[in-house]
Specification:
single chain; about 70 residues; mainly alpha; elongated
Length: about 70
């Protein structure tokens, strides 16, 4: 891979981590938000892709994350 491709991959990973951290805060602050609304708020076009990415990054589904403090 070229240097440019590696830099893009690093940037994409950073953006993903940032979005997931922002989503975690939204979930913690407002348990009533729907997954679709959280996905939209952090820049994911599809709730399913957001959920899969959230699971990959945190080890739990957004609904599990939301329910853990109840």
């Amino acid at each position: 891979t070229s240097r440019r491709q590696r830099q893009m991959c690093i940037r994409d990973r950073y953006v993903t981590k940032y979005r997931i951290e922002k989503a975690k805060k939204l979930i913690e602050e407002n348990k009533d938000l729907r997954i679709k609304d959280i996905a939209d708020a952090v820049g994911f076009k599809e709730a399913y892709y957001f959920s899969k990415t959230f699971k990959r990054e945190t080890g739990m589904w957004p609904t599990e994350y939301s329910a853990r403090d109840k």
